Amino acid sequence: MPSRLRDDVTLVATDYGAVLLDERAGRYYQLNPTGQVAAEHLLAGRGTEDIVAAITTEYEVTEELARADLHSLLDQLRRAGLVVA
To answer: Is 9 helix (H, G, I), strand (E, B) or coil?
Structure first.
């Protein structure tokens, strides 16, 4: 099932990746550059395979590693309540 960031979650780029702000809870979550790519695509409503393709285009990683890392990130974001299906 496709996931996306909640409407009240804001992404802000930094020199080292990005920060997600949970406006509802007032909490910040730091993302590395790969996490930033994933979050930008989630905000744009793109699906898992599109995000994996974007990561493998931007960075020298295999599809398997990109997919595994993306699923790990999505799990963490779900646990934090930042992602909705």
So the answer is: strand
Under the phi-then-psi rule, with left for phi > 0, alpha for psi from -120 to 50, and beta for the rest, what region is 46? Answer: beta
**Each residue's pLDDT expressed in tens, for the chain with a length of 85 residues:** 467 889 899 999 999 899 999 999 999 999 999 999 999 998 888 999 999 999 999 999 999 999 999 999 999 999 999 988 7
Work out the angle at residue 69's Cα, subtended by the Cα atoms of residues 64 and 71, and round it to the nearest 5 degrees.
95
Q: Where are the domains of the chain?
A: 4-80
Q: Estimate to the nearest angstrom the gap between the alpha carbon of 26 and the chain centroid.
A: 18
